[in-house]
User: Fold these one by one.
Assistant:
Number 1:
Amino acid sequence: VQLVESGGGLVQPGGSLRLSCVASGFTFSNSDMRWYRQAPMKEREWVAYIQNTGGRPTYADSVKGRFTISRDNAKNIVYLQMNSLKAEDTGVYYCNAQIARNYWGQGTQVTVSS
């Protein structure tokens, strides 16, 4: 199983980024997917969830209305569109697959700062 995130970077408050996570080594279309993030000196927290079919997107209250999770099962990619970014969104973002156990990517850094 391999998960490779990309798309992070430095953005000003109010800006947007789209994160991507390319999955391999398992049947992506059978797996629900999640995004998590970890801010400096804080524990990793769940951000968003999407069912294997693309249904039932669910979000943490802190990102609801600003972030959108989606997936392309033909390409084995899960996305996280992040709009109206705030300083408190800064952190390393990880995609996650739970297949018998948790699998994580290496993460992509998002920094929101003026």
Note: The radius of gyration is 13 Å.
Number 2:
Amino acid sequence: VQLVESGGGLVQPGGSLRLSCAASGFPFSNYGMSWYRQVPGKEREWVARITNTGGSREYVNFVKGRFTISRDNAKNTVYLQMNSLKAEDTAVYLCMVFVRGVTNWGQGTQVIVSS
């Protein structure tokens, strides 16, 4: 299993970013996917999840209405569209998939929200 995130960067408060997670090594369309984020010194926290078909999506309260998770099963990629970004959204964002009893993580992509 390999997960490769991209799309992070520096953005001003109120701005937007679209993160991508390219997956390989497993039948992508069979598995739900999740995004997490981590700030140094704090626990990794769950942000959003999407079912294998994309038919159901869930979000942590503090991103509802601002972030949207989606997927393209033809491209083996899951996305996180982040709008109305706030300074407190600054973190490393990671995608995760649980395959055959193993939790798999990407290396993460850094998002910095600052003026």
Note: The chain is about 0% helix and 55% strand.
